[in-house]
Structure formats: structure tokens, C-alpha cells
Amino acid sequence: MLTAWAPYAPALLLLLAVLWLPGLALLWAFGQRGGRILLTAPAFSVAVVGVSGVALDLLGIRYDLLSQAGAALVLAAAAWLVGRVLPRGGHAPAPEVGPAAGATAVGAPGAGTGPDAAAPARPWVFPAAAAVGVAVGAVLLLRRMVSAIGEPEAMAQRWDNIFHLNAIRWVVETGSGSTLTLNRMVDPERTVALYPAAWHQLASLAVPVAGDSVLAAHNLTLLAVAGVVWPASCVFLTRCLVGPSPVAAVVAGAASAGFGLFPYGLMAWGPLFPNILSLVLLPVVLGLLVRLLGPGLGADPTARIPDGPARLRTAASLLVALGALFVSQPNGVLALLVVGVPLVATAWALGLRAAVRAGRRRRTALLAVAAVLAAAVWLLVWNTLTTTFFWAPFTTLPRGVGEALLYGTNGRLDVPWVLVVLTGAGIYAAVVRRRLRWLVVAHLLLAYLYAVAAAGEDGPWRDWLTSGWYTDSHRLAATLPLTALPLAALGAEHLAARLAAGLAAAAAVLRGGRAAARPAAAGRARPVAYPVAAVLVLAVAVPVSQMGSLTRTTQEVKRYYAWDGPESILGHDEFELLQELGRLTGPGDVVAVNPWNGGSLAWAVAERPVTQYHVEDPEPPLDELVAGIDTAAPGSPACAAAEELGVEWVLDFGTQLLVPWATEPLEVYSGVTAVDPAADPGLAPVAREGGAVLYEVVGCDGP
């Protein structure tokens, strides 16, 4: 299997370069330094890609790798100028937090984790652990995704993939990669046709290097984004919330590959590739928001208080990263709004309490006004991102809550117990360390939203809460790792610290009896005990996170990537015929298709224009053509439509439809579906692969 993927290694490396280099250049030019920019660079690269697509389209410049590189350099230069204008800023040491505020030393009664465990004496330990975490997560993710996808040119046989694959070809062929105009592919009459384009832009850059294969470039983009960027984002968020804990970093990376909910779940459902990109970047945005609001919202013992200029720079970085979410998929913004409620509310409450205690009435009034404005903006954005498409509930509310808390959503029978246990330990540690209670609340909010989508009674409340996700429980389930991952990492650190304290006490007893088990003696043993405890926790958590619970998920993904499954929209014979279209038809020849049986993918695979680029009802005059071109004669409405639309060919992929139980498409598209050459003189067969046939329109020719 790996042999089949080897020729595409250059395209994968190109995608990784596009995902890292523009962001690194932007951050470096802005004045950011340190290893953290390696973890956050992809979010800024996606922002660069999205902005470049819009700007180049407005300037009339073709979007491709060369123009993208030029635009990235221009944006980096702009970041350099802004970085010179803004004051540098700095940090003050964070106030010491004692037990009254929820932070306790390692080994103390009720302790969670502490500086002894989180901040190793050697400064290289955490960067090394972060690199290991990202590497472990990437290897686990890539291995499983490659196994699930199978062939490099396989495709997820699902509804949304018709649009996504065709949109990638659209960017390649038209040179237009703008979020403002991408939807012109299906609605060419609109001046502004919004659709988040970042995913399709990224994939389009790999098409020329992937042998002009849109399907391969698409899969490679999935591997780069979900397989490499995702663990890096998770490690960054964990660093912001938990601190420089080696155990937390490694567990965060490994756990990124342990949830069936994401990214595997969205690979099989939809598939929702722009959503995957948005959720992959979301941990970076949340981490930046935590850093902006200050050290009082995390359990990082090394955090410092940023001054005004430092906050301004962080705010500028946050705005750029937010832009990356919008050009990826706004569902990421909705998830941020949910998690941001307890986060910002906690920050506001801390600020208000400090202002009241200090007797600063003006600051108190400003905070009150800020709360009203923030609520208004929150409601505006939330209501703007709602939709009118709804999925029906399918279970009960208690069961939905249980599924979310056990990560067994949407009927999954395999529960990732090690992640459930680690999350539970993290919740306990977060409650003990009061600064992270907001994270527990955020986790419960996401679980509740999933339950509402999966089981809530239809009505205004369910619609308002979940319609931004189309009331789709799969989309909401995919948001759960955003809070579960840092909680699991915190739980692993907590368990390692407790185990280390126990080992240190036991070692002291073995060395000198009960008198030696006093805190001083145990403290002397702790430098050795903690690494041993960390290794033990990792030795259990990392491998067990990959056992059992992901088997069913992998099988589900494989089922939808199979060429000739019971619900496939593009069989292997049909794919073979599409590859021959370039030889059988001329450039620019329009092919009439039934989008419900996969015919629309002639555009993605063979670069041939089709009558419809996505699944939708045919409008006049196309409706006349697809209903009667098989029996058309000169002067008939079908022939008039064929002449108006420039149709010379018909692609018949038979009666296996995207929605197997649908019958209306067979009637509406009867002229281009299951054609009988003997009874339908308007079409002449030109090529056949199995049940897939290419016909030439001959019935409209004059005598």
C-alpha cells in the first residue's frame, strides 16, 4: 500500500511547505520567536492562503503556486512593517498562586499537578517532548488514514465530495481561488458567491505535482492537515493551558490520533473537509485567546502577565488566526463562541473582582460596558452563522449526553476508555486547580450541544442552539476533542505527579523506614520518581489509546472509501471511463450528466465541463435536456437546450445513486440515465467501461 503512495511524496512535502513556510515567515517578520511558532505556523499560513486568494482574484491575477508565493512575501513584508510600528511590549512575573487559589504542590493532599512536575529543570525537555508528541500523533494518524483511504486516488463516496473535488478543479482551471467567488461554480450568475475556499486552494496547489490528479491532491491535503497539523495544534493548546509538562505534550500528540470523532468521523460523514481544516486550526485560536486574556486562566506555572503592548501583539495574531477559521469553515468560529463563553466570563469575573477590591470604579464601569458589548457581538455572530437545514434527532437526551461524555457518539459501540479515564482525571485536576474550571464547563457545553442535536425536541431552542451546525450531531461530535484533549493531557500529568509522589514515598520507606517517609525524604526521591512515573503513564496511555476503540471507526471510513460499495457514487469502472474522457472528447466539450450518480465528477477527473457541478435540481433549459435528449429530434426542446448549453456528450453512470432510496432523480434525469441504445436513437455509444457508457448526441443532427 505504501508503495502506491510513494510517487506522491513530493506533493505531500509541497503541501507541508505551504502549510508551514508562509506562517513562519509572517510570524518571524512580525517579531515572534521561539519554538511555539513552529506549532502555530499552519494557522497563519492558512490565513495567508485565504487572503491571497481573495486579493489575487480582485487584482485579476491567476491563483497558482507562483502567485501564492509572491502574495505570501508581500504579506510577510506588511507584517514586518506592522511589527515595527507596534511597541514590543513585555511580561511581568505572574503572581504566586497558593493553595487558596487552587494550586498545590506535587504530593500535597488534594494536589493536582504542580511546578515540580510541569517545569523540568532542563529547558530542552519540553521542546523535545513536544516534538515527540507531534511525531507520535502524526505517525499514528497518517498510518491509520492511509490504511482507511487505501489507494491515493480513492475518494470518500459521499455527498459533499462532489462539490469539493470539482471545486479544486475549478480553482486549477479558472485560476480563481477566492472565498468571495468560489460558489460561482454552481451559481455563475452571482457577483458574490461565498464559499470558504482555503481547503480547495491548498489542494489545488498540489494538483500539478500529483500528476494532475485532483483526487490524489485532495487525499494528500487531508493527510497533511489532519495528519500533521492537527497534533501540532493540540500540543500548542495543551502548552497554553497545562504548561511545559513533557507528559502532557506527549499525551496531547498521541490523543490527537485516539478519537474516532475527529478527524476520522468527518472523513466518513459528509465528508466535511473544510470543517476538518477549521477544527484543526481551532486549538491555535483558542490558545491565543487564553494567552491574550492572561495567565489566570490556565494551569501553566511559567505563565507571565502580558503588558499592554504585548496584549496588542497577541490580539493582532489572534485576529489573523480568526481569519483562518473564516476562510476554512465558519463552524470553527461557532465552536470558539461556545468555548469562549466560560473562558471570557471567567476572565471578566476575575477582572471585575480585582477592580472592586481595588476600589477602581471607572474600571468597574468599563468592564460592565464591555460585558454588554461582548454579549451583543456574540449574539450577532451566532445568529449570522445559523442555517435553515436540519437533521432529525435519533436518540434520547440522556443517552446523547452519555455518548458525548464517553466519546461514543452517533451509535459508536467502542468507547476509548483510556481517554475517558484521562479526561476524568483532568476534570478532577481542573476543579482542584480553580483556574481551569472554565475548561470543564466548556467541555460540558459541547457535550450538551451534541446531545441537543442528537436527541433534542424539534423547536426554536434546538434550532437556535445547533442550526449553525445544520443540527448535525456528527459536526458537533467532532468539536469534543477541542476540550477533551487538554483535559486528558492535564489528567495524564496529574496521574504522573500523584504516581511520582507515591513512588517517592515508597522509595523513602524502603531506604530508611517510616521516619524516612517524611516529606523532606520523599522530596529528595522525587527527581527520580517523576521521570519513572511519567514513563509508566505514557507506556500505558499512548498504546492503549490506539487499541480497540478505533477499529470500528477505521472500518467505517474504509467502507466509504471503497470503489464499489453499496452506496458508492463513483465505481472503479466509472473512474476508468472518466480517465479516458480526455482522449475521447475535446477540451471545452460540455458533457450532460446526472449528478446523483457521480457523473458530475467528469470535471474533477477529466477537466471536462459538465451540466451540473453538484447535486441540485436542474433548471430550464437543462431540465428539458436531461429528460429527453435520448429520444430528441431536430427542433425538439431537448435539442434546443443542447444547442444553448453546448452539450455534445452524455455520460451515463446507471441507476446507483448517491441516495440509494431516492427515485425522483431517475425520473427527472431519465434522458441521461440507464439509456437503451436500441430504443433511444438520440444517443450513440462511443465508449464503455462495465456499466458506464459515454454517448454522443446524434439525434439533433439535421438530415
Could you describe the 3D structure shown?
The protein is mainly alpha-helical. It is 62% helix and 4% strand. It has 28 helices and 6 strands. It has helices at 2-5, 9-30, 36-59, 65-85, 115-118, 125-149, 159-174, 198-206, 214-242, 246-255, 260-268, 273-293, 308-328, 331-358, 361-384, 397-405, 417-432, 437-455, 460-466, 473-477, 481-512, 519-544, 549-561, 572-584, 602-606, 622-628, 637-645, 664-668; strands at 91-93, 304-306, 590-592, 647-652, 683-689, 692-697. The strands form 2 sheets. Strands 3-4-6-5 form a 4-stranded mixed beta sheet. β5 and β6 form a beta hairpin. α3 (36-59) crosses α13 and α7 (159-174) crosses α8 (198-206). The longest helix is centred in the last third of the chain and has 32 residues, at 481-512. The chain is globular, with a radius of gyration of 28 Å. The protein starts with a helix and ends in a 6-residue tail after the last strand.
